[in-house]
Amino acid sequence: MPDLTLNGEPRSVPAGTTLRDLVPVADGVAVAVDGEVVPRGRLATHTLADGQRVEIVTAVQGG
C-alpha cells in the first residue's frame, strides 16, 4: 500500500491507485506529482508510487 502526500497531508492508497482514482472529473482541476504537472489525458494511466507528493488544485474565479 503506497504512502504518499496528498495536498500536504499523509495518505495511504491501495496498490495500483491511479490519479483518476483521486481526481474528480471536473473542469478547472490540475494535478502535479512531485512538482510536475500531469496532463489530463494521462490521469487514468499514472499509477501512484510510495513517497510521491501529489497536489490537486482547482481554479476559482473571482473579481
TrEMBL record:
The superkingdom of the source organism is: Bacteria
InterPro entries, A to Z = Beta-grasp_dom_sf, Mopterin_synth/thiamin_S_b, Thi_S, ThiS/MoaD-like
The protein's matches in PANTHER family, at most eight in alphabetical order, are given as:
SULFUR CARRIER PROTEIN THIS
Know the name of this protein?
Sulfur carrier protein ThiS
